[in-house]
Specification:
Helix content is 33%, strand content 30%. By secondary structure, the protein is α+β, with helices and mostly antiparallel strands. The strands form three sheets. It has a nine-stranded antiparallel beta sheet, with helices on both faces. The chain is elongated, with a radius of gyration of 30 Å.
């Protein structure tokens, strides 16, 4: 192809496309070449000769093609397409895959996931390639599945963290009292949070606050900076406010309030009091 974008005589379109593929992959981060992974699965360039695609594979009752191109998102991707038509139903298959992936297993899992998404209740349409089963076994490697697993793990950790629920009105009173105290004194001070399973107790240098709460008793007491309550929103949308010490931070209704929380060991304090 010359500088004007025209094809030079004797230069095939397939060689030009291969050059584009190589340049695009070189410009991206290193990883497994998806096109090469597809060839190892049975995708053939010969089967795509009479199409506008680069490669294709016979899935049994339909042909799935793969085309390397610049998409509407202005990035190079591999577009898959195909159609399965019967007297009762027509299924149009179209999805994308990145040019580079972390491993061959991710490429196989990605392709398998997409095919089963289109033929969820008609798996028998697909030719029983061995790599389909390999793909199913590696669904956990897919980016969106990994995010879901990470979210579920973080959610389970949150549910296991020290938590309690207080009435919205009582919470407003606590926040207003501490905020006014900070403004009156003009300096920072430390607050201790305690929860025995029935009452949330808040100790400050001069006043003691306590409000009814629900939840499991905390195994530890916690210290936070009083200025954290200046970050609390003025309104709560729910009738109850959930207090949580998660990832060593204070959250109210999952909103981050304090960046640093110091944990106190209750058992050690009880042992000292008994010895005295």
């Amino acid at each position: 192809m010359n500088e004007n974008g025209r094809m030079v005589q004797g230069q095939s379109s397939s060689s030009i496309n291969s050059k584009m593929c190589w340049d695009a992959r070189e410009s991206q981060e290193h990883g497994v070449d998806t096109m090469q992974a597809l060839e190892s699965l049975g995708f053939s360039r010969e089967l795509a000769v009479n199409t506008h695609a680069d490669m294709a594979i016979n899935m049994g009752e339909f042909v799935l093609t793969a085309l390397f191109c610049l998409t509407s998102r202005f990035r190079y991707e591999i577009i898959f397409s195909g159609h399965h038509i019967t007297s009762r139903i027509a299924t149009m298959v179209e999805f994308e895959m990145p040019v580079l992936l972390d491993s061959d297993e991710v490429a196989i899992a990605w392709l398998t996931w997409m095919l089963e998404t289109y033929f969820k209740n008609r798996i028998e349409i697909l030719t029983p390639f061995e790599w389909l089963e390999v793909g199913r076994q590696n669904f956990h490697l897919l980016p969106w599945v990994k995010k879901r697993i990470a979210y579920d793990l973080r959610e389970s950790e949150y549910q296991a963290s020290p938590r309690c629920c207080t009435c919205r009105t009582d919470t407003r009173t606590i926040v207003r009292t501490i905020s006014n105290k900070i403004k009156d004194q003009g300096h920072e001070f430390v607050i201790r949070l305690r929860f025995d399973g029935e009452v949330l107790k808040i100790d400050t240098p001069e006043i003691f606050l306590a409000i009814p709460a629900q939840g499991e008793a905390w195994k530890n007491n916690f210290q936070i900076s009083a200025s954290a309550f200046l970050n609390v929103p003025r309104r709560f949308l729910r009738d109850y406010v959930e207090w949580a010490i998660f990832e060593e931070r204070l959250h109210l209704n999952r909103l981050l309030i304090s960046d640093t929380v110091i944990k106190e060991d209750i058992s050690a304090q009880l042992q000292i009091s008994v010895e005295n």
